[in-house]
Amino acid sequence: MSDEQGPAERLALGTPLREALDTISPAAWLALDAEVRILASRPANRLPTRNDLRGLPAGPLSPGDESRVALALCHPNGRVREAALGRAAETPGLLPLLVVRCADWAAPVRDRARAVLADAAGPGFARVTPLVLLLSRRDRGGFALHLLERVLRDGPGRDVEALLDDEDRAVRRFACGIAVDRHLLTRAELARRAAAADDVRVQVLYAEAALAGAGEDDHDAVVAPLLSARSPQVRAAGVTGLRRAGRHGQAAGFLADRSGLVRACARYVLRQGGTDPLPLYRSMCLDPAQRPSAVAGLGECGSRTDIETLWPLTAHPLPAVRAHAVAALCALDAVQPDRIRPLLDDPAAVVVRAAARALRPYAATLDADLLRARLTPDRPRATRSAAHRLLAAQERAHARGLCPRP
Fold this sequence. Notes:
This protein is mostly helical. Among the domains are: 1-120, no CATH class; 121-184, no CATH class; 335-406. Helix content is 60%, strand content 0%.
């Protein structure tokens, strides 16, 4: 058999369905649907007719007959597609094509397919979830999705749980929403999944569900896993959970978190517990090498009196402290371009990037020749990139007439 043959041609030659195409892939079923229509334009296409379908023996289909019904379900003639729908309902392997026909462009085929699918949908329907979600993006693809959702909401919880770790992100999100609504997972399980998930939307769904109704007794099982998560969204949820658990003081340990979102939540929780975070930030900034992100936190909640504390930190030996000091000055609207500009030559790329962000609003006032001098190949890549961005910002400012060209 030629490797160049497509799935439709292989089916036409009698190849069993599971050998002719990747039956796990939603895209493979849609590709088959399109390919059969192309095959039909050829003189000797071996596609089944309605008479062929009538001649099929009753009962379970043989592998060869299953392949012919699959071709009929994708036939360009709507009457052939409609005639094949009855046999599709009897054959689990053809369920994906039955789902495809529920979004058919011909109303008689579409309506018949929907009636057949509504009768045939059962626990096995969950296995075509990826295809249903893919088809739901089409104009007529909503029926199968609504039916699937009803089946999963009313059926065994294990069918939903089996989809929670699917490799398809859309499937994981879909199943997560149903699992949360059905309360299929304990708070501890929700917290563990929130900490382990790699999708922000799923992380947030799990974390919020884990914390819903959580109390003081849920700290170890629910809040602690959230606090140790890599995701800032999950850690932020965990910090917020400290308030519900009555452990406001523990939020102080997250004032210098690497995420601004987590730092903001920590300040909120501390204030709810009657603690002002600003003195804590000022104390941490006396030795910022221990907690560099505390410098950024000081800028986020500090006052003009903290500006003189921050400027010396732009020369701190630790690059992270220098970068956070620049960000803090931006937050306090205390940037002085002449004092920040030398940091474009800082040996640490993180500091150069922070300096470029700080100088962008002032790009129109910068010396263009000075920036062009930093485009030479001997300059570090971070410095060249910063100069490019600032020159582009300067050009945009000139184009808008914000300042005259030199």
